[in-house]
Design brief:
Jelly Rolls, kinase, transmembrane helix
Amino acid sequence: TDYSWFSDKRSCRQISRNESNNGSNENVRLFGIDEGKRCYNLPTIKNEVYLIRGIFPFGELSNSSFYVTIGVTQLGSVISSKFQDLGIEGVFRATKNYIDFCLVKEKVNPYISQLELRPVPEEYIHGLPTSVLKLISRNNLKGEGDYIRTPVDKSDRIWKGTSNPSYALPLSSNASAINFDPKTNMTPPLQVLQTALTHPEKLEFIHNDLETEGYEYRVFLYFLELNSSLKAGQRVFDIHVNSEAKEERFDILAEGSNYRYTVLNFSATGSLNVTLIKASGSENGPLLNAYEILQVRPWIEETKQTD
């Protein structure tokens, strides 16, 4: 509960079973304020990297609109849906021993049902000392279905099964049969990696739902070679983002492990196209197990109050 922050239980209400997205009753904190914001003050360790996620349920609270901030950095806006819960998630480096997660009133009273703070690998924000990342999409390429999260994912990232290109060929392997030694903390759970998509020539993933305002983005692509008979040089491909070559002759097995990930940084307005193309001379087409898209937002320092 959030009673340690807000002791007035009268502003805590319950969404009934027929309104809640998961088919069960759910408590919601509804802030009846004239203006301003309400903040949850959460303890952090300075310089550590965290995932923070708020869940905003659908139902009779639809048609609401308010802002969500980390400190004073705007992470997104809640425009409620009548059909599904909305999650807003960010990744940041703590600059002090606490972080404020705030709901800022616009036209209607803000509300929230869940708030989660988890440590995540340093690699997410490596090279971005003054930025916060907003999650756009986290994709488990096993196809539509249940999602994978804690306790399978120690960082409680939510890996949703997504619809895949109809031409792509699914691959899978029994988790117990995979020799998996990633040599890095930057990896999805094995349950995510044990499925993949491949094609003899090309894989293409299109997202047309990015914000129309230009932003920097960071994409993480995750690869686990599921064909144990392949050797380095037998599956080589090029990686393009919005028709720009980002990686040439990428080989999952080139570094002596069957697992590899890569980070792609780019600017985009409105849409994203990630394309993996079989390289000249390769015996096999590209493969991909999972990927994440994050928007890079500048971290805004809070103004110090003086007497």
